[in-house]
Amino acid sequence: MARNETRPVVLLGSTAGTGHTYVTRKSRRNDPDRLELRKFDPVAGRHVMFREAR
Questions:
Q1: Long-range contacts of 26-31 (CB under 8 A, 24+ apart)
Q2: How far is CA 26 from each of CA 18, 39, 43, 49, rounded to the nearest angstrom?
Q3: Cβ neighbours, 10 Å, residue 41
Q4: CA–CA separation, 52 vs 39, rounded Å?
Q5: Using CA atoms, how far apart are residues 25 and 3, in angstroms rounded to an integer?
Q6: Per-residue pLDDT tens for 17-30?
Q7: pTM
Q8: CA–CA separation, 11 vs 4, rounded Å?
Q9: Short-list 1, 44, 26, CA closest to 36
């Protein structure tokens, strides 16, 4: 799959302070702001907010 600027690869960092990250791609057209998703943090053992790190 070709890489382009419309769907960049972003790093999602845990807000629980555990240092766990997820790697995903996002659409700049649909989500121009920083991406925030609620995902499972295996270090914390619960679901927490993950924010896009730059």
A1: 26/52
A2: 23, 15, 24, 16
A3: 21
A4: 12
A5: 10
A6: 999 999 999 999 99
A7: 0.83
A8: 16
A9: 26
